[in-house]
Amino acid sequence: MKKDAISTGLFIAIGFLCVAIVIAILIPLVRDVINAADDNRPTIPGVSLTQPLVPNQTAVTMSMTHVSV
After folding, report:
1. How far apart are CA 61 and CA 69, in angstroms?
2. CA angle at 61 for the pair 57 and 66, rounded to the nearest 5°
3. Would you say residue 14 has pLDDT above 60?
4. Vertex 16: Cα angle to 5 and 9 (nearest 5)
5. What does each C-alpha distance from 35 to 13, 23, 39, 41 come to in angstroms?
6. Is pLDDT larger for residue 32 or for residue 61?
7. Strand pairing of 47-52 and 59-64?
8. pLDDT (average), residues 36-57
9. pLDDT at 21 over 60
10. Is the torsion defined by CA of 9, 12, 18, 24 positive or negative?
11. Element holding 19 (H helix, E strand)
12. How far is CA 57 from CA 3, 43, 50, in A?
C-alpha cells in the first residue's frame, strides 16, 4: 500500500511539473503574438480645416493631426 501511495504521489508531482513547464513556455509565446497583433493598427489620418477669419478675407488653413498611442 505504501508503494502505491509513493508512486501516485510521484505521478501527480510529475504531472504538475509538466503542466508548469508547458505554461511557462506558452505564456511568453501568447504574449508575443498579442503584442505583434497590436503593432498592426492603422494610423488615423489628420484633419484639415479651412475657414476664413473674417468675411471677404483670404482663408487660413489649419491642420490637426491625431496620433494614436
Report:
1. 26
2. 155
3. yes
4. 5
5. 33, 18, 7, 11
6. 32
7. antiparallel
8. 69
9. yes
10. negative
11. helix 2-38
12. 98, 34, 12
Residue 47, C-alpha cell as written in the block: 484633419
Amino acid at 31: R
The C-alpha cell of 59 is what?
A: 482663408
Grid coordinates 513547464 are at which residue? 21
C-alpha distances out from residue 17 to 13, 21, 58, Å: 6, 6, 75
Is it the case that residue 16 has pLDDT exceeding 90?
A: yes
Place of cell 505564456: 27
Element (H or E) spanning 47, and its range? Answer: strand 47-52
What one-letter code names the amino acid at 51? Q
**In terms of residues, how long is the chain?**
69
Give the integer Cα–Cα distance in Å for 44 and 65.
Answer: 8
